[in-house]
Design goal:
Helix content: 55-70%
Bound molecules: adenosine-5'-diphosphate
Radius of gyration: 63 Å
CATH architecture of the domain at 131-286: Alpha Horseshoe
Shape: rod-shaped
Number of strands: 14
Strand order of the largest sheet: 9-11-12-14-13
Largest sheet: 5 strands, mixed
Strand content: 5-15%
Length: 693
Amino acid sequence: MDKLLDRALASLARRVWPDRSEVRLRNELTHLRSRAQLAVIFLFTVLVPGVALAWIGMSAIGAESQAMWEEVRQEGDRELRDVLKEVEEQFTGFEAQVKTRLVAGRSPVDNQSSISPFLLTSFRLDSSGSLAAPFTEEPLPPLQDQSFYFSPTWRQAQALEANAPTAAAAAYLQASRQAESIHEEGEALFNSARMKAKAGDRDEAIGMYADLFADYSEVRTLHGFRLGDLASLKRGELRMQVDPEIGGADLRELVERLLNRRWSLGSGALDAAIAARALELVEDVAEKDWLARSRGRLDNQVEQLYWAKQLYPELRVFHPEGRVLPVARGEFSYRLGNNALWATMWWGEDNPDFYAFALDISALEQEIQAMTRSATRTSETVNVVVLTADREAPSDTLARRSLNPWLRGYELAVHPRSAADLENSQRRKTAQRAAILVLALVIIVMGAGLTLRLVGQELTIARSQADFAANVSHELRSPITQIRLKGESLQLGMAETEEELNDHYDAIVRESERLSRLVDNVLDFAAIDGGHKTYTFRPVPIAQTIESTVQAARYGMEMRDMHLDLSLSPHLPVVVHDPEAIAQVLLNLISNAAKYGKEGAWIGVNAEVVGEEVVIEISDRGIGISPDELPHLFEHFYRSSDPAARRRKGTGIGLSIVKYIVEAHGGRVEVSSTLNVGSTFALHFPLTPPTSA
Ligand code: ADP
């Protein structure tokens, strides 16, 4: 396969470069092959993996960004579900507790074991729609005839109250006998006891209150107060004057009785008033804890009573007496006025009663908000908010769920905590990844570039060496052929005239010199390259070396119709140098000037002292050198790529030998050249001799 390819390439090359020798063609082919292999290696080890890496990297970055948003959405869904579950658990537990307490006849709202901070009131209704717990509907006694309170005896007693309490007490006693109902009778007796107390007859009053408590306990006054409660209050107050301990205990008992009683929507407020007064009286003697607890309970009951009074009439509209509405749990809900009340009711599971409760909407909202906050504690990325009628969903909302039936018209919405932050961190991540990717690619490309350059340089050197071998063999062949031809024609006596004979001898000498110069150069180059070239420095007038060398060269030049102009400054000094080596330098430069000059052209050799240096210049008016080739001239095997230069035969080692020798003498070579005008090679030698060989 390889051979086939080689053959194909060879025939192609032969067609492209028909005038190249076999050796050169082979060189060219080997070089082409190496370059092609290098390109293939570069393609498969750098380019393809690099592109694949970049593609995989970029698509991974894209996928990651998508995955992040998907994750945020899922997290949002999870959070919403969690919050809703928590809300539902709260409510289910809450409903059950309210119901249990109501069934037991207790109020679900008391400060000792409050079920929920947002429960304002709750009550149970029986199948007839009447209140069953914790309030009663007990109406105040109807007052058909109020003439008793306008009777002369009653009015006289009232008139005496201010200044004659004893007489007033007697008048009220009198009135009690005239009373036509137990209410009138009780109230008259109560007033009589009150006047006795005012008159200072405390023991008598205490006794009368005790009797009233025993006999008229449930009897109501005109304003609806229970006489039993009023009598207890008054008796306690009086007994406190005698003994605060005993009186205080009486009043505390009264407070407990009032607070534990099932309050009626009608007279609950009166009970509350008596309890409040009793608490005021025992303020100084009662235990602080008990006092605070009782006040709290009282406040709660008053508050509940207030809300129950608001809600109950509304409920009656939906649940008129004797008619049971088929209401399912959570179905009935509305706001009551501006009080942000929400009511719901549900059927008891095994009885036809139902329960209703009123909630403080803003407290409930806060509670759910607190829940959303606590539920999102774990989530750094999303936030759950409660949406009310007047609160719009955030623009970056990921999902929303209704809070029905718990909180009609309310919704939960979940949104990223900070979309901008997420985007930024994602962008940062992407940038980082991309930077790493780019860095990796840059390193790969740089590494590959470096390797390619090195390999390229090696290939160029290899090519130059191959070219060198081809050039040397070619350079050797032509003088040898010449010498042989001329020698043979002499041998065969083919040269007859004097002129012909001389021409043959000259050619043999010239070609031998060329041959020996070439061999010298190759050997020198090998010695220099191997690092074992040495020079013998001697103090010799430099003019002598230049003159003898130019003399030797001149003959060949003149043969080619070239004019060699030598100009030596008269004050050239003795310079420590190796005359053979310097001669070789000059010969190389002169033969280059001739080679790259033009037929019939001029070559100038000029030497003078400039400052501390001897400067020898070899100038021509030849093809010149392009500026970008100047830096490479002295490299091993370097030959110009200019076709005009390439036409001239050469090996590319002459100038590198020149440079080496001049530098071994502590000097330097400078070139100045203009294309198609000519070149000048200037050798600068220091006047002080080199210290080592
Ligand atoms: P070569 O054997 O090719 O002459 P050299 O090392 O002597 O090798 O020269 C290197 C290259 O420098 C030549 O190939 C030629 O292109 C260029 N060069 C040298 N001297 C001259 C000159 N006097 N004029 C133009 N080009 C020159």
